[in-house]
Amino acid sequence: MNEPVYRLREVEKIRTKGGASFTLRVPELLIHKGEFLSVVGPSGCGKSTLLDLLALVLNPTNSSCFTIDARNKITSERFDIPSLSENHAAWIRRKNIGYVLQSGGLFPFLTVRENIMLTAEISGKSIDSQAFGNLVDVLGLGDQLNKKPQYLSGGQRQRVAVARALIHQPSIILADEPTAAVDYPTALDIRDELKTLAHEVGSAVVMVTHDRSLVKDISDSEVRFEVVRKSLNDTLATTFVINKTAPGSSNEGAPEQGISK
Ligand SMILES: Nc1ncnc2c1ncn2[C@@H]1O[C@H](COP(=O)(O)OP(=O)(O)OP(=O)(O)O)[C@@H](O)[C@H]1O
Ligand SMILES: [Mg+2]
């Protein structure tokens, strides 16, 4: 297999809020170019926290290795994520990462078309009108392009967020519950679009979902969580990986997903 885009070893993020503490621990995670990785687990287990770490939005509290292979000018280079400056992290994100936020994150003052084209513009990539037309057709947004997000349904807004993250075919796609607000056929279309970007374009795709049945047959690997409530105010979630495409590398005996006390 090719060199991993992300390498994580003993990465930890501690989040505290209102006296409660949540720790996400990632013992080991490798994410490759062309891989479709699903992230599956119950609400509050740390899926969005993991994605924010991968998106360079959150800094880890501790890590023994946390690197990203990203485009730097023309060539690709490996960067040590915890030592990146904020500006450099933002630059790498703009050039390499498409992030579908769980909250959508659309700009209310821009139309659907402008929202979708925004990431392409800031990544500096020109988009041909056929690629734009194909993507908005797949996502059923062709007749919504001149509307502002407030005039769309929740599912339509979510599809705009997906289009915005995918339009410039970034080498890394992070999608946080991109199918949560759409009907099942649309969820399948979104999933298949993400799979195409991984398997045909070669992007590294990480898709969060609470619906394992949607991704179980098509993911190359799956991240799950073992959640232990150490006390009322102290939770530890540890990830483990089920690798489905590399024979012999699955985590036999890995704990079952769920919350234990
Ligand atoms: N900004 C924050 N500050 C402090 N703690 C936070 C913050 N955001 C989330 N947390 C805590 O971190 C834990 C993991 O949250 P996270 O959003 O990663 O879960 P999730 O798996 O994405 O859940 P969901 O499926 O509901 O989206 C939760 O216990 C949450 O309370
Ligand atoms: Mg979440």
Structure in a nutshell:
The chain is an alpha/beta fold. Helix content is 29%, strand content 33%.
Structure in words:
The protein is an alpha/beta fold and 261 residues long. The protein is 29% helix and 33% strand. It has one domain (4-260): Rossmann fold, CATH 3.40.50.300. A hairpin with a 2-residue loop joins β4 and β5. α3 packs parallel to α5. The protein binds adenosine-5'-triphosphate and magnesium ion (MG). The site of adenosine-5'-triphosphate has 13 residues, from β1 and α1.
- What is the name of the CATH superfamily? P-loop containing nucleotide triphosphate hydrolases
Poorly predicted regions are 247-261
Bound molecules: adenosine-5'-triphosphate, magnesium ion
Structural class: alpha/beta
Task: Using the 3D structure, state the CATH architecture.
Answer: 3-Layer(aba) Sandwich
Relative helix content? 25-40%
By CATH, the topology is: Rossmann fold
Top CATH class: Alpha Beta
Count of alpha/pi helices: 7
The gross shape turns out to be globular
- Biggest sheet features: 11 strands, mixed
Total domains, how many?
Answer: 1
The separation of the N and C termini measures: 38 Å
Report the order of strands and helices: EEEHEEHEHHHEHEHEEE
Mean pLDDT: 89
Number of strands: 11
